[in-house]
């Protein structure tokens, strides 16, 4: 289901070009609008579809196994923190789905590590990562090690 | 060429490829390297790059230690048996003991993790898997990486690692080009964390034409992690252990949520359970130690993924296909129906599109399953990748050379698919490995190991020349012909990819040959790979986009060669259902209960193969 | 559209497709119809059209009766056993008794036939095959056809037969378009001899990308004979009997001259003879009647082609590939070496190119063999085609309805691949069949059977509209999208072909599934073919060349559907090595020693399947 | 091994366009020279190569399995009645072959059937084809029939 771009909707803003992981959304020189230059490298990941402010991009199933006449439309809203899908079958059946995409205002809950207190030498010498052991266990117990867990590494054939 | 050379100097930590591993590395590096210069060089846009670009509906590696669900060693045992005995248990234990901390962080950042309404714990899909609304998984971890990095260079296709000209076998950064401007980018760095991911499209896909973009692993998973590291002379491990996945037919939608949460099950074309029928024969091939259905039933020890594939493949070969996933029962429950659909909308939209296009409603019709073409990666039920040092408090001497997740090249670290021996890390484990590598890289620098690095102008200009050769080649020879892509002087990247995929398919165990290979076939494959390598010197790119494809192909080619060398080396069929060595159809623990390790000499192109011992995690008194 | 409508009226004999069958028909028609109007409508240029465009190095059907070599009935018995019992022996006997006259004519016209210097007889490749310098085989027979025809319309893609509007089930000519001018051509004719050839590219080829042109049968063998006749409601026979060929790997160079004249032989990857190893198991599948190696050895009764394939396929599946053709001995003889090379230069240049490209010199290296994707045709070791009347002096009542080689549609005749039940006709037999059909067509007209034909304007304009729809479709919807070939309203011919090939491969027994199918799979295949047919209504062609591809695809699709219907009908595995019905893995003479006959109702699209008795040629007193 | 056309040799005469059985040799609008518009439908049949008066067309092995660096050149001569091939391997080895393509002056040995005496009614009613029985046997014996050969057609299972 590679993407295609509706001629009358695209305004050539380039958001799709900016986001496509496959580098295949390019701006057509003649029409100054976007199109998929290499459909056989399109993963139908919908990154461009979600990013297009004009809803100008759609997808039609890969011709080598998907018949015509379906559609899967999406609306992703970072403000609302939701994504809405509308699936239309070849036979006309429709299904709608709505999911959250985040539980927090976008990006704000991630700390800036340059601003947190740096690690002590002891911590550097330990096996702990940032904010551990806090995150490892409910009981705030320490990191699992071979010793704490009564284990050793042994050569040979074990199953 | 008019392209500029842009040098970024004085980098402490260069993250090459910011997928799940790379974002973890960049994020964590800032904590341990508060004043260090952290730079990301990424082929795409880190907001939607890598395997998780379209999201994930599950986090497949979570212990739940805080709820008493599993200990790290339980996961190691799981991964061990699933991989037929051969994994790096030090790396796995290490990943498992940290992974929960990664996941809890994700939740704090806003990733919607589903909860079990009764217990309040994360909603389990299976013993190791938890369910998420993960459409924005990648944008969220990218946000974290951006918070930590000094600079993010998007759209840089990294083509080569830079090597220290003053000290043998020490990394010194990386080079590449910007796939939009065409500019040459030089990153001089004390350490490099390679998170450039796994490989699709090395073997001929089942899909054809337009549909060949519909791979399970993303089409942009270009084997760059392997290509970069092998080229630089890093040792690799278990590269033969390519993975074949049971997937919904054509759309390649994952089956985990279906098997584990929806409790759907498979049947053959006659509506029969078939899996267990193949177990007796399989047991003869692999031994009771690796397949003991009764014990599995009692202890919830899994039937290894490859062996489940084997049953599916054998049943189809026997003429009793197609295999169906029985969804019609589960989908009567509206909650499960919703999960079934959202599972795909969240990570493989194409499967939903396909069902819509073919009027398949799994509530009324059981969809078909198939086995995919092989993929090469290191974080699902497979563990190809670089041979890395483990952590000092766990690793035996053969597995330890100073810095966690450091490859056999000094200062070069890996994370995620790049690291060998650590299957079942998945997204969360890959991010965790990135964090571990970042801490170790900071330590490496702080220990003074990166002093005195020299990168000669010769090295920089040699790579520059090499990078643009395909564009030059096109310019020179294009006008010798009237038009079209048939030229006696060059092939284009798509033509080269077709050649690579076809030969890997036919000689190294792809779908067309039902995953069968043998010594003779592998030797022919190597010969053809060598000739292809010569032709890749004559590859032509008509524009920068094709230049990107040319370099992806070169990375894929190198990885494919390494896969073939390893497959030739291991004279047994360790993972029936992933591939078969027709000339050695059994598991042979006496000779092959070892990890395979290869090194390609960057000067001669010759491979050296060795066996490394397999250490297991056992009870203190065992 | 501005395309002109060009009507050619008053034709007596319209030859649709002037390959080997069609040129034979046109040539001979002039003798029996001295004053008749004979017209050729040909898709390409008859000088180099059809399967023989690049020449042939052997004539594979020649009795040599004049030298006492064989009688016609010997050939019938050969074809019968090779096809596992099921052929039209009346048609075969008839072809065989005339074929020598065809070959002697060829020689007289200048075709260089090699001679045995000792005996003066034609140089035998095998019992039935003689060797020629046949690079100009096609230009020579085209010359003959041009001598006889009133008009040759080159570059007309015939899309439909015209039907008489005054009498049910009587042909009235054909329509098509000129692939250069785009003009609409209407041929009103009393009779039509369909020589539009067999089918490549119905099943997914082993080759990919650029290489997919390298098929054994020519890529332009577009199943048009089948598409045209099935659409018109003609009965078809043995359409399930698709052929898989053992061929030199990748180049698809034929093996006949190698096996028979050079006496090369095959071995597996271990250098072992493997064929006989599979015979015991095979004998259980097919019965001793069809495979009796000892008897074969004593009597030179051949091992059926499909069974030889079976051994090759099974050996490869067992992991002992690749199969090699041992050429190194034969090639030490300079004469045989020359034959080995010229054999390909004369009919499959691509094989020579491939060996040159890969530095394979068969004198020093044994080249690889493989089995091809399936082809649908009717003149090699396979006999798909129309259900035709035989000659009155031979045919039993079930096989006779008045005119030799007339299909079940009045006035519509066939020759070569178009005719079912006549395997091993090859080039010479196909030409001979054309001659027979031409004589019968003249008789049909002379008997007054073609009186009063009416072709309504409605029919002519309906077809015109239908033909250009893909161009219209493109025009209307092209600009809805910015650029590219992904459009929600249409697919293009290449995309449709990819879809067809993939589904036939997966559901109807192609290479990817090792030729395996079963009832369930075939039903799914039919469902997908139906949906594809709907999408073919929405096919778009951006220019006249794509319009050609669109119509070729429609013909291929219709033939594929018929093949699938037949494969479903025959509940046995009659030709292991061509395909396997996994749900009926044996030959079942009790129920299936019959010819399968289908008819598609042109109005409803429904198929009716019947069994027709199989008559054998036996001694007078048997 | 699809065809390509050397820019400097082609003069746009169209012989290749006229002969290609696959309809894929077309004239490029810009350069007014020929090229292969659809290499994946090229059978490497060499019809166009043989027909080109300028030797402007060559072939390079299909990229998906044929390495670069080989060539197979041909010279077909209707006057001389021969075809000459030169094969060049990737490793430089060369092989030459020469074969006849006809034994008669081109086309002249084929009779014009409109000018031969038409068939008698008897011949029409027989099973004979043009010029038969002459061509059927050395001894000029008659056509084989079930009767002459002691045969019959019988329903049933025979092997
Ligand atoms: C594609 C896919 C993947 C998964 C799943 C379903 C599907 C459909 N499933 S399920 O099937 O089990 O259902 C999983 C699931 O549900 N849960 C889970 O936790 N993981 C799943 N994965 C696996 C994980 O995604 C995987 O384990 C991790 O992503 C691996 O992480 P990492 O090793 O970092 O790879 P990456 O692809 O994320 O990132 C690679 C980055 O490198 C960049 N890159 C590549 N080459 C480069 C170059 N030359 N220069 C510069 N940059 C260059 C990439 O752009 C990318 O950013
Ligand atoms: C491709 C090929 C074929 C053979 C071989 C090797 C190779 C590589 N071998 S070996 O493998 O055994 O080696 C043979 C061999 O050596 N000796 C031999 O006698 N025969 C061999 N064949 C088989 C014969 O060629 C075959 O039996 C006959 O050609 C069949 O004759 P016929 O049924 O007439 O098919 P055709 O392809 O020749 O002609 C079809 C014509 O129809 C035209 N056409 C098609 N669609 C049309 C449309 N829609 N409208 C108008 N015209 C439309 C075509 O252009 C063509 O002119
Ligand atoms: N129910 C829905 N689910 C998802 N997206 C929707 C829905 N309704 C409207 N949209 C969005 O609105 C755009 C325009 O819709 P349409 O009119 O279907 O093209 C689509 O591209 C969607 O992104
Ligand atoms: N049938 C199964 N039994 C056990 N685990 C499974 C099964 N199928 C998938 N899984 C696991 O579920 C997760 C997702 O699998 P998949 O969707 O196949 O990528 C991985 O951890 C798999 O190992
Ligand atoms: N191994 C074989 N034994 C007998 N006949 C063969 C063999 N291989 C090819 N032939 C015949 O040789 C001719 C050309 O075959 P091919 O080159 O395979 O198309 C056909 O008549 C085949 O039936
Ligand atoms: S994002 Fe949408 S509007 Fe912007 S260029 Fe792409 S298709 Fe056009
Ligand atoms: S769907 Fe994904 S791969 Fe395809 S064009 Fe859009 S962003 Fe690129
Ligand atoms: S035949 Fe030769 S010269 Fe003439 S157009 Fe074709 S390539 Fe050019
Ligand atoms: S080689 Fe044959 S198919 Fe290819 S372009 Fe020339 S004439 Fe056409
Ligand atoms: Na890993």
TrEMBL record, chains A, D:
EC numbers, comma separated: 1.8.99.2
Keyword line: 4Fe-4S, Iron, Iron-sulfur, Metal-binding, Oxidoreductase
InterPro entries membership: 4Fe4S_Fe-S-bd (IPR017896), 4Fe4S_Fe_S_CS (IPR017900), AprB (IPR011802), AprB_C (IPR022738), APS_reduc_Bsu_C_sf (IPR038465), Fe-S_Ferredoxin (IPR050572)
Enzyme kind, highest EC tier: oxidoreductase
A Pfam family assignment: Fer4_7
Gene Ontology molecular function terms on file: 4 iron, 4 sulfur cluster binding; adenylyl-sulfate reductase activity; metal ion binding
Sequence ranges assigned to domain 4Fe-4S ferredoxin-type in this UniProt record: 1-30, 33-62
Protein name per UniProt: Adenylyl-sulfate reductase subunit beta
Lineage, broadest ranks: Bacteria, Pseudomonadati, Pseudomonadota, Alphaproteobacteria, Hyphomicrobiales
Protein encoded by which gene: aprB
From TrEMBL, chains B, C:
Pfam families named among the record's database cross-references: FAD_binding_2, Succ_DH_flav_C
Segment forming the signal sequence: none
Gene3D superfamilies: FAD/NAD(P)-binding domain (3.50.50.60), Succinate dehydrogenase/fumarate reductase flavoprotein, catalytic domain (3.90.700.10)
Record's GO cellular component terms: plasma membrane
GO terms classed as biological process: anaerobic respiration
Keywords: Flavoprotein, Oxidoreductase
Entry EC number(s): 1.8.99.2
InterPro entries the UniProt entry points to: AprA (IPR011803), FAD-dep_OxRdtase_2_FAD-bd (IPR003953), FAD/NAD-bd_sf (IPR036188), Fum_R/Succ_DH_flav-like_C_sf (IPR037099), Fum_Rdtase/Succ_DH_flav-like_C (IPR015939), SdhA/FrdA/AprA (IPR030664), Succ_DH/fumarate_Rdtase_cat_sf (IPR027477)
Domain of life: Bacteria
Residue ranges of domain Fumarate reductase/succinate dehydrogenase flavoprotein-like C-terminal in the record: 499-613
GO molecular function terms attached to this record: adenylyl-sulfate reductase activity; electron transfer activity; flavin adenine dinucleotide binding; succinate dehydrogenase activity
Cofactor(s) essential for the protein: FAD
Keyword Zinc-finger: no
FAD-dependent oxidoreductase 2 FAD-binding domain mapped to chain residues: 12-241
Active site: 301
The protein, known as: Adenylyl-sulfate reductase subunit alpha
Lineage: Bacteria, Pseudomonadati, Pseudomonadota, Alphaproteobacteria, Hyphomicrobiales
Gene for this chain: aprA
